[in-house]
Structures are given as C-alpha cells and as structure tokens.
Amino acid sequence: MEKLKEWMNKRSLKQQLIEVFRKAGLYIEHQTRGGQIPIYPKIHVVTSSNQCVQYVFTIPNGLDPKKIEKKWFCFQQILGRNIAIEGDIKKFVLHVFHSDAGLKPYNYSYKKWQPLLQKYRLPVVVGRDQFGKMITYDMVDANTPHLLIAGETGSGKSSMVRVILSTLIQTMSPDTLHLYLGDLKNSEFHFLRRVKHVKEVCMEEIEMKIMLQKVWNGIRERRKLMATYEVDHIDEYNKLHPDKRKPYILLAIDEVAMLQDEKECMTIIEKISAVGRALGVYLMLSMQRPDAKVLDGKLKLNMTVRMGFRCADSINSNIMGTPGAEDLEQSGQMMLKLHGLKKVQAPYLELNKAKQMIEPYRLPKDTVELSSPEQEKLPLFGVLNHEE
Hints:
With 388 residues, the chain is an alpha/beta fold. It folds into two domains: 2-97; 110-376, 3-Layer(aba) Sandwich (Rossmann fold). Helix content is 34%, strand content 24%. Helix 5 packs parallel to helix 11 (351-358). It starts with a helix and ends in a 12-residue tail after the last helix.
C-alpha cells in the first residue's frame, strides 16, 4: 500500500513538471503520419524529501536550453517561487523547495569561508543556497571570469560588493592582485583607499576614461608578451617567468550605468569582457537598476556570472537574466546565475566591519597618497607609459 501511495505521489509530481513543459512550450515537434506530436524533456528521476522535490530531466536534441530561463515564470507559476535549477546544455536538476527556511540572514566571517577559498586562484564568496551549502567560485575558471551584480537600495548589493572585495584583499597578496575601482556615486569604494592592492579609485567620468585606457594598454602589453612566448593564458607566462609575474587585475565599477553616454569607456569595458580572461583581467560591474542600453548583447553575454538582488520589476530582472529577482523580499537574497539559476542568501558585511577587516592591509596615511588618473596628467587616449 505504501509503495502504491509513493508511486501515485511521484506520478502526480511528474505530471506537474510535464504541465510546466507544456505551458512553457519546452518541446520539439516530431512529424508523424498522423500529424505533429510534441517531444517533451525526459524526466529520469523524481525524489521527494522533507526539504524539497528533486527532478532530473534531459531536454531533446534541438531544443534551446536558454528557453528554460526565458520561460522561468512558467516554472514559478506552477511549482512555486522556491525553485532552483542546475545544468546548461542537456541534463538539468530541478529542486522545488517546500519553504525558504534554509535562507536565513547571517553575518560574514572570513574564517568560516577561508577553507573553501584555498583551492582557487581568484576566489569569490557568494553565499548559502537553500540546502545550506556554502557557494564559492573561481574567477579564473574559463566559464566564470566576469561578474554582474544588480539590486535596488536595501537589497544587499552593497554588502555583497564589500564581501567580495574584502575576501580578495584578505586572500591575495598585493603582488598577485591589483584592484582598479570606479565609484561614480562616491558611495562604495572610498573605504578602500590606501589598501595595498588598490591602484586607483575613480569618482569622475574623466578619471574613469584615463584609468580604463591605462588598463587597456596593460592588456595590449600582455597580449604581446603572450604572443612572444607562445602561451594562451597569463598563468602560463607566470610559470615561465616567476621573477616577472603579472598580477591578476580586477576592474570593479559601481553604477556602471552612469557611463552609458561615455562611448569610449563602454567600448573598452566591452573589449575587456571579451578578451580579459586569458590575460588575467576580470570585471565586476554593479548597478542599482539594470539598463538594457548598458547591458547590450555582447557585454551581457560575456558577464557569465550574475547576482540579481531585489529588482523593481520583472523587466529589470529579465534584463539581468535572473528571473524571479523582482519577487525577493529579504535583504541579501539573490537569484544567482552560475551553472544554472538558484536562490541564495548572501552574507551580510556592515561597512564599519569591512573597514576593520582591511585595516591591516592599509598603508599609513602619512606615507602615501593614492593617485587618481587625473592627477597623473596622462594623455587621455594616447600611449601610456604604465607598468603593471
């Protein structure tokens, strides 16, 4: 009797997912003598637990996997909002959670995350998923080089930016990581001035233009070096020349949407997103409101990891490629696009705590004054004599 109940329950759950496929148009049509019939994704396993229902399915050949993201609202309408999916080409694992209980707010502690970061070359702390799993990733990996973060005021975006940068500063040495920061609203990166890793902090568009050109000139130098030594990644060059190692470069720009009218700036940012990974140059772009004019096809495509905190509406969350972000209520929750789409709770790091964490990495005020590109009086788009 119990087995019959279990079979009936799994059959009902399976029918729910098939209904999602039907409503979302997730099928290909096969021509037969009697006409066209839909070929739906094949559901291989349905597992039910106290925490969630797990589905494992594969999509038929010829069906665009991006359609799952485009039709995510169908999954939510039928299965509920507490869902997560992993997979990217053929096989997918879908979790339907019974509640949000696994996503409770918590404070950031570097000591708790540190053991997970040691295997990475450029580690990023993300947060905990609905299973309580701590999520991290490596920016140097081929599929995760550039990060896009969006969320309205109070959503947890600023705290996430502080977590990422504070983690990198505590994990990497100033010789292995250089930070170039753009803070156009003068609200996010001021506390990072005089940190040993930080090469520049820009707060004006004119400064941004000069800094971006400097970074781009550095990229051109690296391309020449790699061509000369016939290597295809900066790590290979560093292995050949341990005494002349090139550091990783992270270009972090807050409120990048304010640069949408600065064509020279956006052109360089887009080029970095296309070629930076192999050269050891990575992007972290953040904004309050996703803008389709800023996130055009090429740039958006290259920003492979996306953290969608609470957005104003579905238009904004769809521009980000993180559907469901408009429904988030709790500060620090995000829709994470990383090898799939899932809801994650980011750790909270208050500004004063971040200042305390990075104080040991800060240079004394009387020994150095962080230069701005404007102070250097370099030609705006000419040849710059800048060394890494």
